Amino acid sequence: MNIKLITAIITISLALVFYTIGVFSERKSGSLKLKQILFFGVGLLFDMTGTTIMSSIANSSATVTPMLHLVTGMAAIILMAFHFIWAAYVLWLGSKKSKVNFHKFSLVVWLFWLIPYVAGLVMGMTS
User: Fold this and answer.
1) How many other β-carbons are positioned within 10 Å of the β-carbon of residue 109?
2) 44-69: per-residue pLDDT in tens?
3) Known NCBIfam families for this protein (predicted)?
């Protein structure tokens, strides 16, 4: 296993860790807080970094990445970015009710993000 692949696996796994901490910390606290937004942001940065590294590996390889993985992966990053921006908006300008209910959106984003994450794991184990 080469160093680029190891780095990509570690960064994408760190994205999972940070994003999961943010989502479930928010659920547990009962309201959106700055620390959760920071976890969302760090998770997004790690995901973008790992995805960029994985893309460079895929581009230099003869292996074809399934279109579904590409589409869900790109959609997940866009959704995570939107989630991060929307969380900041809700924290600073949103109502108390929106801060309390934001965790529902967070969970949906997290669950969607798991689709390309798990697909990548499965593809990596079968190749």
Assistant:
1) 20
2) 999 999 999 998 888 887 777 788 88
3) HsmA family protein
Give per-residue pLDDT as tens, 65-106.
788 888 999 999 999 999 999 999 999 999 999 999 999 999
Find, among 12, 36, 2, 7, the residue nearest to 121 by Cα: 12
| Single pTM value for the model | 0.91
End-to-end CA distance of the chain: 12
In angstroms, the CA 84 to CA 88 distance is 6
Q: Which of 26, 58, 30, 29 is nearest to 43 (CA)?
A: 26
Residue 94 φ/ψ, nearest 5 degrees = -80, 165
Tokens at 112, concatenated: 């969607």
